[in-house]
Amino acid sequence: MFQGGSKLLDTTFQRHEDAPTSLRTTSHGRSMTSVFVISREPRMRTAVTEYLRERGYDTATASNYDNAMLHLADHRHDAIVTDVQGLPRDEAGANFVQFNQWLASTYRTTPPTMVYLLHKGARRPHFRIEGAVIKKPFPIEALGQALRERIGHPRRDGHDPGIDLDLASNTLRSGDRQAHLTHIEATLLAYLMEHEGEILHPRELLVDVWQYHDAAGASTLVRAHVSNLRRKLRDVLGSAEYIQTIRGKGYRFTA
Known about the structure:
This protein is α/β, with parallel strands linked by helices. It contains seven helices and twelve strands. It has helices spanning 42-54, 65-72, 96-106, 140-151, 183-194, 202-210, 218-237, and strands spanning 2-3, 6-7, 34-38, 58-62, 79-83, 113-119, 132-136, 164-166, 171-174, 177-180, 243-246, 250-253.
């Protein structure tokens, strides 16, 4: 349904389309960015997966928490979008509390990015793995924004960006375009690319990239170098979005 010019998910209509769907992958060496969607409501699953696929994400789904746990035991995804729902009285199976605990015990060291869908006015449970919370009904674009802020833009074709970084000459190339980087910029870009997808705090960058252990002014110093690097990325690659700012946390390089 549409409300106030924004597309809102209407999940009141139920269809018998509960079979889980599997992850689609490309023939390239690197898989697409994948999102796992869990909801008892077929219309919710369909609306979310269609939106995500249109924007270049790969998707897989589950209609209940039992199927979700079976799937996640063997598959790893960049993000999990889960509808926080109760269990109908006439049905057996895992409820959200059990699924919530299973997630925490399964992903002890490297938890996935989580997005929780929660009915407006519902009591917020204690999420064992922190994540974004979106209240239903919601504009579908809110889900896209939450994912972009946490895992970046999707890897549409499985390829790394056409970036050639020559550390011997501190030169950035892509096709017939190139730009000269300062030594600091080249070292910073190399480190960001090596840790693609990770959120790196400015203090971490100062220590690991430049072996600079004085944290005073870390954010300001790193911000200045990132700004210059983004400008050169834009000149060579046509976009500066490869380096994202994650508010309050740091920076992330995404292909």
